[in-house]
Amino acid sequence: MDKKIVHIDLDSFFVSVERLNNSKLIGKPILVGGTSDRGVVASCSYEARSFGVHSAMPMRRARQLCPEAIIVKGDMEQYSNYSNIITEIIKEQVPLYEKSSIDEFYMDLTGMDRFFGTYKWAQEIKQKIVKETGLPISFALSANKTVSKVGTGEAKPNGQKEISRGTEKGFLAPLSIRKIPMIGDKTYQLLRGMGVLRIQTLQEMPKELMQEVLGLNGQVIWQKANGIDNSLVIPYSEKKSISTEQTFDKDTIDVKALKSVLMAMTEKLAYELRSDTKLTGCVAVKIRYSDFNTYTKQAQIPYTSLDSILIEKVMSLFDKLYEKRMLIRLIGVRFSHLVSGSYQISLFENNIEQLRLYSALDYLRNRFGKDIISRAGAIGVSINEFNAFNGIKRGPKIEQ
Q1: Are 328 and 259 in contact (CB under 8 A)?
Q2: DSSP for 323-387?
Q3: Is pLDDT at 162 greater than 90 in this prediction?
Q4: pLDDT, tens digit, 9 for 90 and up, residues 318-328
Q5: Where does the pLDDT of residue 115 fall: very low under 50, low under 70, confident under 90, or very high at 90 and above?
Q6: Which long-range contacts (CB under 8 A, 24 or more apart) does 181-190 make?
Q7: Domains assigned to the chain
Q8: pLDDT in tens, 333-392
Q9: Which residues are catalytic?
Q10: Could you tell me whether strands 328-336 and 70-72 are parallel, antiparallel, or unpaired per DSSP bridges?
Q11: Residue 201 and residue 175 in contact, taking contact as beta carbons nearer than 8 Å
Q12: Do 377 and 137 form a contact (C-beta atoms < 8 A)?
């Protein structure tokens, strides 16, 4: 059976949400992100992009390129709310979908053409989202995820495209190699140095040469360039979570030590999120008292993987949960409602130096181990408490 995969992408998502709240921003160059010169562009309008501005660019540079741009400080909570609304709409309409990020979705409509044209179905889903949210979206339909994602990029803004089976290579051929997922700056510069600028050139290169130059990634890139992608749409489940918990050798009422343990747990789980390019939308804290009664409190949050935000929420939940003032036998932390995404740093509040700091800390953990560095509060635990940290050292637990 021929696959029918749709990729949906919300156009300039953050900017579009801001324009819903302020119509005066429509048609003007908009930058969403840190409002100071030391901030970073999280999203920009198409009007701003025409000046050479792009996301992740330092705000100072963006202002130089586009002096007329209006700068808006982002609101992740608001963006998360709209993302959840769209998720619910898709969930009601589609039997199998994947939420790949806060503003991107894949839908597997294979077999649906027996009842209803898949392209027409995708159009109606788009119209429903636009009607209920007011947000512009683009989509593309093809036989696989790669071609559909590239097609969506070509359909923007607020467009739609169908790439029929058998036409994938011809569709991809004239496009820049930058359009292929997996080709980042380093790979692009390497291929460009070889004189490879268009996807057609990749299609004509021997697969063995690509593998010799880029290793196993070269083979995957060659397949994508030729419109070949057998990856599946991964069913999205808000029950998916990452968690860790600790049972103490000796029950304790030392709140300072308990909070230090929670901080260490949260910091390590946040690092795991960033390592997997994941964001969490729900945080939970678990307490088991010496009488074995267990209590859990959770809260939904704007999607993030920034440990400072998560630590603050975990501490707040612990303060609300720890009411009995009894000896504690076990504590735990769980992050759920996970989605893929790279907004791991709060681009709306942190400056470039802070972004670099988090990047440097994660680099150290990647190279020397995740326990190589911790916050001062997390290492304020007594030696006995740290000796009981076996659960954390085994790493986080992934749940379905």
Answers
A1: no
A2: -S---EEEEEEEEES-EE----S-TTT--HHHHHHHHHHHHHHHHH-TTS---GGGG-S-HHHHH
A3: yes
A4: 999 987 778 99
A5: low
A6: 181/146, 181/149, 181/150, 181/224, 182/217, 182/220, 182/221, 182/224, 183/221, 187/214, 187/217, 187/221, 190/214
A7: 1-162 (3.30.70.270), 166-235 (1.10.150.20), 241-399 (3.30.1490.100)
A8: 999 988 876 554 455 555 556 666 666 666 665 666 555 555 555 444 443 443 444 333
A9: 104
A10: unpaired
A11: no
A12: no
Residue type present at position 356: R
Length of the chain: 400
Indicate the burial class of 72 (C-beta count within 10 angstroms; 0-12, 13-18, 19 or more).
buried
What amino acid occupies position 137?
I
Q: Whose CA is closest to 78, among 34, 125, 35, 133?
A: 133
CB 154 within 8 A of CB 174: no
Nearest to 77 by CA among 358, 362, 359, 349: 349
How far apart, in Å, do the first and last CA atoms of the chain sit? 29
Cβ atoms of 122 and 141 closer than 8 Å: yes
Give all strands of the β-sheet with 137-142 in edge-to-edge order.
97-101, 104-108, 5-10, 137-142, 160-162
